[in-house]
Specification:
408 residues, mainly alpha, Double Stranded RNA Binding Domain, two-stranded antiparallel ribbon, two-stranded antiparallel sheet, 12 helices, 53% helix
């Protein structure tokens, strides 16, 4: 290789080396700048995170203070409300009826009585209520829910207050007392109804006739006289009745129960009213008097029957022979003539009768009993009719004196 070529190669090598050295220096500078930049970014990120964390802690503290302040205000308000129970302070007054309340919310609820507002509506039957709680109780009618159960019997209710009232049937408690007659009741509502007996108030009026009552249930029963509705049905004989209390009477006929006992004659009855009538036979009381003839009876129904003697009214008519009667029972007895029915049978001789009184008279032929005594000669008879005939021998009365005998 000549000298010129050798110098050229040496120069090229030097230039290449210097070029690589420049590149290396440049890369190192850039790398150094990149490292510095990355460190600065990390520092800034840490500072931002620290600032955000500080702000978050500050926000949480503010939120806690706000909750604490709200809680304190709520507790202070509730304490203030509760204190009105002890102080009996009632600063919220109704402008309509002047009734006072210890809470503003209670006044707002009360005002719905005057305005008739019922904002809470049942989605099932569309019935409306003035209190949300009343709607909740009402919904149990549709759901069948009865969460309040008696610990003694199987009674359950959809209303807590109803259970409390029911428990008084077990305890016998009657905390509500009438100031007039001292009678006690297990419900305040029953006392309020009872007070109308003393005041004479009958605020519940029939929309069809002039009937009025002091009791809502009595008015409801009365309305059935207009509608003919008899929703209470006997499971034994399938008879229907207007009211539940009336069903209790025929049920005792089916069961034979006679819970009402006379202390005088020890006779038992299936109705309290029948016992009261029986007691009048012992006391001789006849408080129902006829305005026409002054005849007195011990039963109001008997006075109504007696009055038909004066009026000639015979409202009960036989569909077979058109014969009329002033008593329903007389028509029933008469119908046995057509049907041949003789439901009253003697246990001794098996003889049958179509009237109970005929069986009673017949039984005296077996017992020898003669309860009807003549006050004049002391002669005794087993039937009242025979005594009446006998008395004519003493009085000389001849009510059936015939004119035929005088012709011979």
């Amino acid at each position: 290789m000549n000298k010129g070529a050798s110098d050229h190669a040496i120069n090229f090598a030097k230039e290449t080396h210097q070029s690589n050295l420049l590149k290396t220096n440049c890369t190192e500078a850039e790398l150094s700048n990149t490292v510095v930049s990355s460190a600065e970014e990390t520092t800034r990120q840490k500072e931002e995170d620290a600032e955000n964390q500080k702000n978050e802690i500050s926000f949480q503290n503010d939120e806690k203070r706000s909750i604490s302040n709200n809680l304190m205000r709520h507790l202070t308000l509730q304490t203030s409300k509760h204190q009105t129970i002890h102080t009996e302070e009632k600063p919220f007054k109704c402008d309509v009826c002047k009734k006072s309340f210890n809470l503003k919310g209670n006044l707002a609820k009360h005002m719905r009585i005057h305005t008739g507002e019922k904002p809470f509506k049942c989605d099932v039957c569309k019935k409306s209520f003035n209190l949300k709680g009343n709607l909740s109780k009402h919904m149990r009618i549709h759901t069948g829910e009865k969460p309040f159960k008696c610990d003694i019997c199987k009674y359950s209710s959809n209303w807590k207050h109803a259970l409390a009232i029911h428990m008084r049937t077990h305890t016998g408690e009657k905390p509500f007392k009438c100031d007039v007659c001292k009678k006690t009741f297990n419900q305040n509502g029953n006392l309020n109804i009872h007070m109308r007996v003393h005041t004479g108030e009958n605020p519940l009026k029939c929309s069809i006739c002039k009937y009025s009552s002091n009791c809502k249930s009595a008015l409801a029963v009365h309305m059935r006289t207009h509608t003919g509705e008899k929703p209470i049905k006997c499971d034994v004989c399938k008879r229907s009745f207007k009211q539940k209390s009336t069903l209790a009477i025929p049920m005792r006929i089916h069961t034979g129960e006679k819970p009402f006992k006379c202390d005088v004659c020890k006779h038992s009855f299936n109705q309290k009213s029948t016992l009261a009538i029986n007691m009048r036979t012992h006391t001789g009381e006849k408080s129902f008097k006829c305005n026409v003839c002054k005849h007195s009876v011990n039963v109001k129904g008997n006075l109504a029957i007696h009055m038909r003697i004066h009026t000639g009214e015979k409202p009960f008519k036989c569909d077979v022979c058109k014969h009329s009667f002033n008593q329903k029972s007389n028509l029933a007895i008469h119908m046995r003539i057509h049907t041949g029915e003789k439901p009253f049978k003697c246990d001794v001789c098996k003889h049958s009768f179509n009237q109970k009184i005929h069986l009673a008279n017949h039984m005296r032929t077996h017992t020898g009993e003669k309860p009807f005594k003549c006050d004049v000669c002391k002669h005794r008879f087993n039937q009242k009719g025979y005594l009446s005939i006998h008395m004519r021998t003493h009085t000389g009365e001849k009510p059936f004196n015939s004119e035929i005998g005088k012709q011979f």
